[in-house]
Amino acid sequence: MQVLDYLKYKYQAGNAHGLHSPFVYHLYTQIIEPDKRYYIFDQIEKERQHLLANKEIINVTDFGAGSKKSNSNSRSIQSIAKYSLCSERTGRFLFELVHQYKYKKIIELGTSLGISTCYLGSSTKDLQLVTIEGCPEIAKIAQSVFKTLQLDSITSIVGNIDDCLKGQLEKLESVDMVYFDANHTYNSTLKYFEMCLPYIHENTLFVFDDIYWSNEMKKAWKEISEHGSVGISIDLYDLGLCFFRKKQPKQHFTLQF
């Protein structure tokens, strides 16, 4: 099914040609299309390689849809890094979104081993990045990565998102960006989306990871992208973007990534 989804996406995905929205044209030509590199990327990728080489076995607490690769609660750090971390391409894109739009208040749902968190939190020291991870053992490893890279603006919260998210939203009072990469089920994805909605503003961005991961995620993404509060939605296959800009007509785009 995912092969068919991907082929359909590739057939529909456009580029800068024919984009009549100045906002989306800028997003594509200045953030999606360019292959920019910053010195911090090499440092983050070095930490990824350390994780990929780490054969230590840890006990995994999983509140989400689980892993497609393993049903065991005992997994190697190496295996988690191989199957759970964002790609370098996605990481660079997350960095550029924060950098270009100057986001300051960011929440990440699902820290994993912290590579995506590092990309989100490294464009500037002047931000508040809260990342929530359910598994204490995984969070501990991620925290050591943050320390190595001296990313002091990251606040790591360990616990069930159901219990932690509301309190963190209330502390921030509003959010510029939320990265949803935790519980890949229909109910939880919709639930966290609804919980975050009261804290959005005109320039807020929600990023959803793995929108084609399962039928549940495809259903959740369809409902979210069609939600009345969403102004512009963008399907990048690996990611789904939702902007809440009310000054423009509601539009949906499928773009090459």
- What is the molecular shape? globular
Strand content: 15-25%
Kindly state the percentage of residues in helix. 40-55%
What structural category arises from helix and sheet content? alpha/beta
Q: Reading side by side through the largest sheet, how are the strands ordered?
A: 5-4-3-6-7-9-8-10
Number of helices: 10
- Largest beta sheet, briefly? 8 strands, mixed
What is the radius of gyration computed over CA atoms, rounded to a whole number of angstroms?
A: 17 Å
How many strands appear in the DSSP assignment? 10
Distance between the termini: 20 Å
Topology as a string of helices (H) and strands (E): HHHEEHHEHEHEHEHEHEEE
Name the quaternary structure: single chain
Average of pLDDT: 94
Low-confidence stretches: none
Q: Which helices and strands, and how do they pair?
A:
Elements: H1 2-12, H2 22-32, H3 39-52, E1 57-59, E2 74-76, H4 77-84, H5 88-101, E3 105-109, H6 115-121, E4 128-133, H7 136-148, E5 154-158, H8 161-172, E6 177-180, H9 186-196, E7 205-209, H10 215-225, E8 232-235, E9 239-243, E10 251-254
Parallel strand pairs: 3-4, 3-6, 4-5, 6-7, 8-10
Antiparallel strand pairs: 1-2, 7-9, 8-9
Helix pairs in contact: 5-6, 9-10
Explain this structure to me?
Helix 5 (88-101) runs parallel beside helix 6 and helix 9 runs parallel beside helix 10 (215-225). The strands form two sheets. Strands 5-4-3-6-7-9-8-10 form an eight-stranded mixed β-sheet, with helices on both faces. Strands 1-2 form a two-stranded antiparallel sheet. Helix 9 links the parallel strand 6 and strand 7 (205-209). It is of the alpha/beta class. It has helices at residues 2-12, 22-32, 39-52, 77-84, 88-101, 115-121, 136-148, 161-172, 186-196, 215-225; strands at 57-59, 74-76, 105-109, 128-133, 154-158, 177-180, 205-209, 232-235, 239-243, 251-254. The protein is built from ten helices and ten strands. The mean pLDDT is 94. The radius of gyration is 17 Å and the shape is globular.
